[in-house]
Amino acid sequence: MINMALYKREMKGSIKLLIIFSAIITLYVSVIIYMYDPQMTKMLDSFVEVMPELMAAVGMKANTTNLLGFMVSYLYGFILVIFPMLFCILRGNALIAKYVDKGSMVSLVAAPVKRRTIALTQMQVLISGILLLIVYSTILELICAESGFPGELDITTLFILNGGLLCLHLFIGSICFLSSCIFSDTKYSIALGAGIPAFMYVLQMLANVGGNAEKAKYFTFFILFNPDGIIIGESSAIVGTFILFAGAIVLYVLGIMIFERKDLHI
Amino acid sequence: MSVIKIENLVHDYGGGKGVFDISFHVNQGEAFGFLGPNGAGKTTTIRHLMGFLKPTSGRCTIDGLDCWSERDKVQAKLGYIPGEINFFDDMSGTEFLKFIAEYRKIGSQNRKEELLERFELDPKSKIKKMSKGTKQKLGIIAAFMHDPDILILDEPTSGLDPLMQSRFVSLVAEEKEHGKTVLMSSHMFEEVERTCDRIGIIRKGKMITVDSAVTLHERHTRSYTVTLENEAIAKAFATDFDGICNGTKVTVTTKQSLEEIFMNYYGGGEND
Q1: Which of B12, B72, B144 to mutate to test the interface with A (most CBs of A within 10 A)?
Q2: How many cross-chain Cβ pairs, A to B, lie less than 8 Å apart?
Q3: B262 in the same domain as B234
Q4: Which residues of A touch B88 (CB under 8 A)?
Q5: Are residues B167 and B140 in the same domain?
Q6: Which chain A residue has the Cα nearest residue B100?
Q7: By mean pLDDT, which of A24-33, A61-70, A237-246, B184-193 is the weakest?
Q8: Is any Cβ of chain A less than 8 angstroms from the Cβ of B17?
Q9: Which domain holds residue B252?
Q10: B222 DSSP β-pair partners
Q11: Are B236 and B230 in contact (CB under 8 A)?
Q12: Based on the domain organization, do B229 and B128 belong to the same domain?
């Protein structure tokens, strides 16, 4: 149920973005992990003291007790959420809607290849990209943590944490993919595919600041990804991860079904 | 035996746009010309045959297979030139043809080289930088290289120069001799007349007439025979007016444009 020729072409199309985002992630992750040292932590904590709202908005909290907690606080609220999310938005839109909008989808559907196969292939291209980014981040975190602070990182928990992160991005990817399958116009595909995740992220930022806005967090799917909860083994955090995963499957299947049945004016 | 069959096809876009109750068929080994002005519904009809659109009502079949629900099986037999060529801009022509061959799983045993030579196409440059005519040539090669039994060609000669147009016409004629079935749309009467056995005319989403090319030709051309003073003048006259010279007599034929033919069918009710 996958067309290798198409898969290869599209993975080639993902390479540039993957390299750019990996480079950015490399920069941030290595710098932040090496900053884990009591003195530097104090400096970051002093930022939090000076501008608590801004730091809280991007999920950074003071007084983290161990390396993983420190990483959760400074990486899992912003960098590791935003960049894979951007990848989902850009690729998700380009994989289906852009081809339909520009008319080059003709080359793909005017061949003895089922639409389901086309959509499944494109979905796997998106998932492969997400997987590559998360796996790369995991390896990078392991290398940085083990080289800087040998033995301090709880590796099993890191794997569980990144499994949760993967589910979050699979879910974000499924929103972008679904919107790409629904709309034949890039304009609308981007509006929904980028709009929903971006809007929810902003809501989440507002909620993090606290006060009255805190209730906003119940209206975003980011509440299902709770890195603090995952590392202390909270069952609700694990349940949230599973909901994200199940939601992703539903949306991908829905996207494929819609693409199979829709009229293509190309 | 009909290979392509369209029965009471309706696809209503609303506002009078779409196709309404279109029916016709194309037989095995026949070339069918699908004529109509811009926006008449030619491409919409073809999109149904390709399985891109689902009919509001009615149905299309190719070789007995439903064009919507069994489109992947139908596609295995088809070669298609889209009305508007929009290939992957980021690829070169060579990469694109290689991609299509792999994507369709047709292997390297195909007619690509022969066709490239025939249309004098050098596919090395990026598709983005190709001229309209060059892209059209690439579209022709992509449609013919897997040697399909049925050809669906949507305004296949648009953008081609006259030399390439006539090469294309002879390619279609050869394919027809090999028993291939051809459906070709156009808004140019002459082109269809040169290639096709039967012609269907569509206007505002409705089929106006389906007739053999010979009948339509007779109905819409008039011949005049004139006698000139001497043979030299007759020859010159024949050259100038594209007539047939026979001694001092020259026969010239006039052709009506498609618009005039429509006027014919609608008795001048063209304006609306």
Answers
A1: B72
A2: 66
A3: yes
A4: 9, 104, 107
A5: yes
A6: A107
A7: A61-70
A8: no
A9: 220-266
A10: B254
A11: no
A12: no
Q: Cβ–Cβ of A264/B76 closer than 8 Å?
A: no
Burial B186-205 (b: 16+ CB within 10 A, else e): bbbbebbbbbbbbbbbbbbb
Q: Give A215 to chain B, closest Cα distance, Å.
A: 45
In the numeric block, which tokens belong to residue B267? 């008795």
Q: Which residues of A touch B52 (CB under 8 A)?
A: 109, 263-266
Q: How many domains does chain B have?
A: 2
Question: Model confidence over A123-174: pLDDT tens digits?
Answer: 999 999 999 999 999 999 999 999 988 888 889 999 999 999 999 999 999 9
Task: Decide: helix, strand or coil at residue B256.
Answer: coil
Contact: A114, B80; criterion CB under 8 Å: no
Q: Does B82 touch chain A (CB under 8 A)?
A: yes
Residues of chain B neighbouring A108 (CB-CB closer than 8 A):
103
Token pair of A130, please? 């997400």
Mark yes or no for CB contact A113/B54 under 8 Å: no
Residue whose tokens read 């909860």: A229
A13 to chain B, any CB pair closer than 8 A? The answer is yes
CB B46, CB B154: distance < 8 Å: yes
Which of A:161-220 have CB within 8 Å of B?
none
Predicted confidence at residue B269, as pLDDT, reads 47
Q: Report ipTM (2 d.p.).
A: 0.86
CATH number at residue B213: 3.40.50.300
**Going by DSSP bridges, is the β-strand pair B31-35/B198-203 parallel, antiparallel, or unpaired?**
parallel
